[in-house]
From TrEMBL:
Organism classification: Bacteria, Bacillati, Actinomycetota, Actinomycetes, Kitasatosporales
PROSITE patterns: HTH_TETR_2
Record bears the keyword Transcription regulation: yes
InterPro entries for this protein: Homeodomain-like_sf, HTH-type_TetR-like_transc_reg, HTH_TetR, Tet_transcr_reg_TetR-rel_C_sf, TetR_SbtR-like_C
Every HTH tetR-type domain range: 14-72
Organism whose genome encodes this protein: Streptomyces siamensis
Designated name of the protein: TetR/AcrR family transcriptional regulator
Domain of life from the UniProt record: Bacteria
Amino acid sequence: MAGRRQGPVRVDALKNREHLLRVAHDAFAEDGATSLNVIAKRAGVGAGTLYRHFPTREALILAVYRHDVERLVGEVDQVLAENAPLDAFRVWFERLAAYVRLKHGLGEALHTVAAQKVISDTYVPVAGAVARLLEACERDGSVRPGLDAADVLLLMGFLWRVGPGEEGLAQARRIMELAIDGFRP
């Protein structure tokens, strides 16, 4: 993968990488056109440190994307532990939608061949997360058996197409409830 070094990586280098990914995520959330130099400055590192981890802007954007998707997928069990299954479904999809709206702000950087491969590689884990949510909902009887995670993920794609601001979020919640009504037994 672009931006990843081969062989053992020092603990401090891993910490630097994680810190850079968090700072870059926040910077891109504010402005998808944020420069690498601005990100390095915000992270409190020199440009050389940033470029050692991520030699190109695209490499950084793709690493942030992969990191964020891994984080979202990894949150499913915690969200299920903290919420009833159907509420966990709602919470997790709202988080996914918020992230996808951010991703769209990165524009052309996510339309390269390399980006499409990373996006394609993350589909299976996301669909797996949706399947875990659906299984929990099925076990407690809040959705009917046999829903396909890929179908639900495609259907829920409306969440990242609503308008911005509170009005868009309110519309997303209303439409989500319509979809959930269709999932019920």
